[in-house]
Each structure stands twice: as C-alpha cells, then as structure tokens.
Amino acid sequence: MDDPTPDSVVWLIGAGRGIGRALALHLAREGRTVVGSARNREDLESLAREAEGLSGRILPQPLDVTDRAATAQALEEIEARVGLPDVVVLNAGTHTSMPAARFDPEVFDKLMAVNVGGVVNGLAAVIPRFVKRRRGRITVVGSVAGYVGLPTASAYSASKAAVIAMGQSLRPELEAFGITVQVVNPGFVRTPLTDRNTFAMPFLMEPEAAAARIAKGLRSSRFEITMPRRFTWLMKLLAMLPYPVLFALTRRAIPPEARPEALDADGTDEGGTDRKADAA
Ligand SMILES: NC(=O)c1ccc[n+]([C@@H]2O[C@H](COP(=O)([O-])OP(=O)(O)OC[C@H]3O[C@@H](n4cnc5c(N)ncnc54)[C@H](OP(=O)(O)O)[C@@H]3O)[C@@H](O)[C@H]2O)c1
C-alpha cells in the first residue's frame, strides 16, 4: 500500500551524517518536511542549508536520543512547530569493534545506550501519541548484523538483534491502532561509521542508494526494508545454517586484531606467554 502523502512530516533521528543525512535529503526532495535530529547542531544546520531549494524542507532539532526526558521534550517542541509527525525514523546508531578477548562492558553499555536505549526512548515518546491519534509510521534501523552474531560485534550484533526483535514484537500489536512498524536492515553502506572499517566490505552501497531504498520502503506497508538485497539474503541464509557450519564461516571472518597472535604481539595477553610455553 503506497503512502500518498508526500507532504507528510518525518522526524528522523540520526540525520546529521551517513544514511540518515542522505535519507533526510531524499525525503525533502519528495516534498516532505523532515525534522532532523542528532547531537551535532552544525551537521543539522548544514543539512538544512543543503535542502534549501528542494520542494520539502529540513528543520534541525538537536537531540541526544540517549536522554529520555530530552527525547520526550523534543517531540513536544516538534508538535508545536509542525504538528505531530506522520513518520518517525529511529536511525541513530553507532558501532565500536570489540575483540572478544578485550571484552569491555563500557563499549557494551555505550552501544546499548544509543542503539537500543535510543530506540526505546524514541518509541516511548512517540507510541502514546500515535496510539491516541490511531495513525503513524515508526521505522527503526537495525542491521543485518542483528541476524547473526558476528566476530568482534558481540555488542553491536546484540543491539541490532534487540532492535529487530522489538520491531517484530510491536508490529502486530500496533497495527490494530493504525500504526505501521518497520525495520530497516542495511548491509554495508559507505558512511563515516563504516569509513573506520579496515576490512573489505562486500556489496558496499552508497548512502544515496540506501536512502532511495528506505524512502521507497517508507511508502509501503512492508515490515522489513533491506539493502543491498543480494547481501542481505546471504546474511539471512547464514543465520539459518547449522551452528557448526555457521561458526566455520564466521571463524574465518575474525580480523587479525582479534586473534591470539595480535594480543601476544602487543604484550597485553599474559596468558599468551604461557600458551606459547605450553606449545613449545
Ligand atoms: N553504514 C552501514 O553500513 C550500516 C549498516 C547496517 C546498519 N547501519 C545502521 O544505520 C544507522 C546509521 O548508520 P550510519 O552508518 O549512517 O552512521 P553514522 O554515519 O555514524 O551516522 C549516525 C548518525 O546518528 C547520530 N547519532 C549518533 N548517536 C546519537 C545520539 N546519541 N543521539 C542522536 N543522534 C545520534 C549521529 O549524529 P551525532 O553523532 O551528531 O549525534 C549521526 O548523525 C545506524 O543505526 C547503524 O547502526 C549502518
């Protein structure tokens, strides 16, 4: 079912860079009013300037979505400025690679605070209002990394699996209130986040192409929006494999910095010295 309201209001959290920025511009080109949130005000202001001359517009609404009260307050301000949004896209997310041998609860907490806590705070602000109005669209951004636990991504994969499960859980209940819940699961998209990756990223997409796919999904009632499809289907197949086969494949994807040799080499793994002695 297509959404025939190109002038609708979209609140996009995580709009300053990467996928969110490209999506904000795409939606503004479609004629929508996009309220863009992120922590960095300059990113949002430059985004709003970039949208000048398009048929829609982008309004900056700076926000740290890990702050629950600030998220609720932001929605109140948005309602006063442009009315209750028709669509909310919870895109803010981050990733820090964490080798298992350097398991760090602070990395875990930080990723969970943004990737899961940010989605929870957005949902907590929006759901009661959409329920009352009996209409709305909530689109959360997960990742194919949420289909299956990937090496060095125990925190990231766990956070994105949580986002996907939240979407699955909310969708059938909220549709009875006229609310469409969707999950976006991208593969690799070239953004400041993935620019940090040192490994080759298969089927890497440009953010504008990902944004076009997401915008198309926002006009439909489908639950999952994925891109690029060939890669996301491969990841779905991976998740269905028996564990011995899955681990044989994911083991090969362990990056050099997460292997015992790397920890031995930088002298941080005292146990490694013992292992060498044992092996000798
Ligand atoms: N790029 C990929 O290959 C890929 C693949 C799968 C899934 N994803 C997911 O797609 C989403 C966007 O990723 P991206 O690659 O475009 O990332 P990005 O380039 O790092 O952009 C992330 C955006 O989120 C905002 N953000 C981060 N923390 C925030 C917070 N606490 N409050 C409000 N805004 C916050 C950032 O702005 P500030 O820092 O200024 O707040 C920025 O505008 C994420 O959820 C990511 O996990 C990306």
Automatic annotation (TrEMBL):
Residues 258-280 are annotated as: Disordered. Residues 8-192 form the Ketoreductase domain. It comes from the Bacteria. One of its GO terms (cellular component) is membrane. Keywords: Oxidoreductase. GO terms for molecular function: oxidoreductase activity. InterPro entries: KR_dom (IPR057326), NAD(P)-bd_dom_sf (IPR036291), Sc_DH/Rdtase_CS (IPR020904), SDR_fam (IPR002347). Transmembrane segments: none annotated. Belongs to the short-chain dehydrogenases/reductases (SDR) family. PANTHER family: DEHYDROGENASE/REDUCTASE SDR FAMILY MEMBER 7B, DEHYDROGENASE_REDUCTASE SDR FAMILY MEMBER 7B. This is SDR family NAD(P)-dependent oxidoreductase.
